[in-house]
Amino acid sequence: MLKKFLTYVTYPSKLKKAPHLEENNLIIDKHKISIDNASPINGAIVDYGNDYIFVFRINKKKDHTHIGLCILDENFKQKADFKILNTNTITSEDPRIFKKDDDYFIVYNDKLPIKHFCRAMFIAKLNKNLEIEYTTC
Fold first, then answer.
1. Angle in degrees, CA 60, 64, 69, rounded to 5
2. 84 or 28: which carries more pLDDT confidence?
3. Share of the chain above pLDDT 70, in %
4. pLDDT single digits (tens) 14-26
5. What is the mean pLDDT of the chain?
6. From CA 34, how far away is CA 129, in angstroms rounded?
7. Which of 124, 118, 133, 121 is nearest to 106 (CA)?
8. What is the DSSP letter of 120?
9. Residue 108's closest CA among 32, 48, 44, 47?
10. Which long-range contacts (CB under 8 A, 24 or more apart) does 68-76 make?
11. Per-residue pLDDT averaged across 115-131, rounded?
12. What is the pLDDT of residue 13?
């Protein structure tokens, strides 16, 4: 399963023609992941039993970004509709997901609710329904 976890690799187009990526195990395998009714950007994936949790950025409108979550099967195919995680903002971006014991966490960046609108890193714990239980900054 760990090798499959490492197979979803997003890299810049300039690297697509870089020599020796596969030979040096920098890319183990490639899979195209399609999500119905969404155009996922900058996604991350982690084991979830025999399936996977896929989190990604969704650009809704100009300056409106959200974090989507979808369950994928062992062939990286969508099992159910994706959902938008409630981060209480419209500017959440670029999630990364990891598992600690039986808990799942997402690290993402978001604008701070202050005048200069700096971005900060947040960590959100997911509950058993794969919704945000709490967030720290």
1. 60
2. 84
3. 80
4. 555 666 666 666 6
5. 85
6. 22
7. 124
8. E
9. 44
10. 68/35, 68/38, 68/40, 69/130, 70/35, 70/38, 71/130, 72/33, 72/45, 74/4, 74/50, 76/8, 76/31, 76/33, 76/52
11. 92
12. 59
pLDDT at 113 over 90: no
Cα distances (Å, whole numbers) of residue 49 to 15, 34, 63, 74, 128? 32, 21, 35, 10, 13
Sheet containing strand 41-48, edge to edge, reads 41-48, 51-61, 64-72, 83-84
Query: Long-range contacts: 28-31, Cβ < 8 Å, 24+?
Result: 28/3, 29/3, 31/7, 31/76
Residues 6+ apart with CB under 8 A from 49: none
Q: Which residue has the higher pLDDT, 113 or 47?
A: 47
